[in-house]
Write a structure and sequence with these properties.
Elements (H helix, E strand, L loop, with lengths): L1 H31 L16 H27 L17 H27 L2 H12 L14 H7 L1 H9 L4 H18 L22 H10 L10 H6 L6 H8 L13
Bound molecules: zinc ion (ZN) (2 copies).
One zinc ion binds next to helix 8.
Length: about 260
């Protein structure tokens, strides 16, 4: 019974996070101010309502999996005793508390990059990853639009975190909130970083909405989530990334004319 109550609580949390955050971005960029941000649009291809519905449908399945997997590992007697969750921040101190966040982002980016590349293997793609790629021009609702098996793989990072090193519940809460916001930005369809960001010392290593949008459009290249370390190191960054980033942030153009495919 404890399992079902906790499952329902987490389902509400993960679900409301999805609908509130994706909903706010959708309202701002697709309803209220879509004309104002038109020069920031990455692709001109129009979305259909059926795209939004498919993205929301698969996201709800993902929300169920992202609730069930953590609750399963945190409540059953076989795994729960081995988790590394701690209750008082003072146990490891504030320095550790803060320091672990960048570590979590780097680890998750690495996990995501390699799982993502693996799922692009021809033998795995149709089964695991095609659902996510049905959004060739993703919207904020696509952030969790995964096949249930892909959602299960993506939930692996949570499992890793709760067994690998000490984590406070606030680590998990804050990290997955920030993860989700960045994920929505990645699928936004609009670029938010300033012009020439991609050429700056920091911007060269930060993943952008343009990069992930290109991944959805062309089905290859740009496999990272938060960073470009792996893409640059493994030579998987799209060759025309700089050019597309410049087009999507060129405030001179009222209408971007990026390949609609
Ligand atoms: Zn992909
Ligand atoms: Zn995506």
């Amino acid at each position: 019974m404890n399992y079902w109550k906790k499952l329902l609580d987490l389902f509400y949390l993960v679900g409301s996070r999805y609908f509130i955050i994706a909903g706010i971005f959708f309202l701002i960029f697709y309803i209220l101010f879509s004309a104002k941000f038109s020069n920031r649009r990455i692709q001109q291809k129009k979305h259909k309502n059926s795209d939004y519905l498919r993205e929301i449908f698969y996201s709800i399945l993902t929300i169920i999996i992202f609730s069930a997997v953590p609750v399963f590992f945190l409540t059953n007697n076989l795994t729960q005793p081995y988790t590394t969750i701690y209750k008082k921040i003072s146990e490891y101190g504030w320095v550790y508390f803060v320091f672990i966040f960048p570590v979590m982002f780097i680890l998750h980016d690495t996990y995501f990059y390699w799982c993502h590349r693996l799922m692009h293997h021809p033998k795995l793609f149709n089964l695991l990853h095609l659902t996510h790629h049905k959004s060739t021009n993703p919207s904020p609702w696509a952030a969790y639009s995964f096949h249930p098996l892909e959602a299960l793989i993506e939930s692996g990072i949570f499992i890793f975190f709760i067994f690998a090193f000490p984590v406070h519940p606030l680590h998990l809460l804050i990290f997955f909130l920030l993860m989700f916001i960045y994920n929505v930005y990645g699928h936004l369809g609009y670029e938010l970083y300033p012009k020439n960001f991609h050429k700056t010392l920091i911007g060269k290593w930060i993943n952008t909405s343009v990069a992930h949008n290109m991944h959805h459009q062309y089905f290859k290249g740009n496999y990272g989530l938060y960073f470009m370390f792996w893409d640059r190191m493994m030579g998987t960054l799209s060759q025309n990334y700089d050019q597309q980033f410049e087009k999507s942030t060129n405030t001179q153009n009222q209408q971007n004319t990026i390949n609609e495919k």
